[in-house]
Structure formats: structure tokens, C-alpha cells
From TrEMBL:
SUPFAM superfamilies: AhpD-like (SSF69118). One of its GO terms (molecular function) is peroxiredoxin activity. This is Carboxymuconolactone decarboxylase-like domain-containing protein. InterPro entries: AhpD-like, AhpD_core, CMD-like. Residues 19-96 form the Carboxymuconolactone decarboxylase-like domain. It comes from the Bacteria. Transmembrane segments: none annotated. It comes from Kutzneria albida DSM 43870.
Length: 161
């Protein structure tokens, strides 16, 4: 499967990507732990089948010190012992916020209560925005068949601002 469209070579999508990256800075600079940000992004990307984003977030998490065991178990986080209760709440929110069409109510009250138990208002705001942002990123990459494998940690840092 070849990439359908060179998003980074087109003037319109390059402008959009820069603004998209700047929006992600708000989340990156938030009090939501970096490890939680990467785990949530990875889980949503797995659900959406986005190879580009799985590649990116696995490598960024590893570069930030995340362990291979935890990265390998994100897809089966409910069946593992390596995630905190707070991380489990964030992963549940990521799944339910990503699978909106699979559940008529979207995010369950139980999941929301767990998120409220473990995160403050600013962290919740960042978490909700992150779930929306990673789902948008996944859709962009999947639509154009942006394939995973070539991402290098930090490669988009210069594109921001």
C-alpha cells in the first residue's frame, strides 16, 4: 500500500499540520503526565489502525523512558498489572472516546467517575483534548495511507511555532 497523498509536501496540508502541531503543544505543556499522553495516543492509534501514529507514539514514549513491557501491554491494558489506576482511567477514556460509534452513550459515567477521581480539572481538559486530537490525527494518516516505520523521535519539533 503506497501513500496516497504527500501531506507534508502540499502547501495547504503543511499549513494545517503546523497549526495542528501547535494545538498539540497546549496538551504537551499541560500538567497531564507525558507518559499518560503517550499511552493514550498509542491506544487510540491502535484502535484506529494508524500505523504512522503507533510508530510515532511508541518511539516518543520509549525515548521519554517508557518501558517495553508497558508499551507492549497497552493493547491489553485491562489484562495487565503494569498500569496505575489513573492510567487505566485515562486508557478507558481513550477507548470509549475513540469508539463513539460502538456505544450509544459514548464515555460511560463509570469511566468519567474514574477520570474525575484521578485527575484535576486541567489534566481532564488536556485528556479530553488529547483524545479528540489523536483521533483527528489518526483519521488524517489513515485516509492518505501514511505508513509507519520511518518516524524518528522529535522529528516534528522544528515544525511547531
Amino acid at each position: 500500500m503506497d501513500t496516497r497523498f504527500a501531506m507534508f509536501d502540499n502547501e495547504i496540508t503543511a499549513k494545517f499540520a503546523k497549526r495542528f502541531a501547535n494545538a498539540s503543544l497546549v496538551i504537551q505543556q499541560s500538567p497531564l503526565p507525558k507518559s499518560t499522553q503517550e499511552l493514550v495516543s498509542l491506544r487510540a492509534s491502535q484502535i484506529n489502525g494508524c500505523g504512522w501514529c503507533i510508530d510515532m507514539h511508541t518511539k516518543e514514549a520509549a525515548a521519554a523512558g517508557e518501558t517495553p513491557v508497558r508499551l507492549n501491554l497497552v493493547a491489553a491494558w485491562r489484562e495487565s498489572t503494569v498500569f496505575t489506576e489513573a492510567e487505566q482511567a485515562a486508557l478507558a477514556l481513550a477507548e470509549e472516546g475513540t469508539r463513539l460509534a460502538d456505544a450509544h452513550q459514548g464515555v460511560s459515567d463509570q469511566t468519567w467517575a474514574q477520570v474525575r477521581k484521578h485527575y484535576d480539572e486541567d489534566q481532564i481538559a488536556a485528556l479530553v483534548c488529547l483524545v479528540a486530537l489523536i483521533n483527528a490525527a489518526n483519521r488524517l494518516a489513515v485516509i492518505v495511507h501514511q505508513r509507519g516505520g520511518s518516524y524518528e523521535p522529535g522529528m516534528f519539533a522544528a515544525a511547531v511555532n
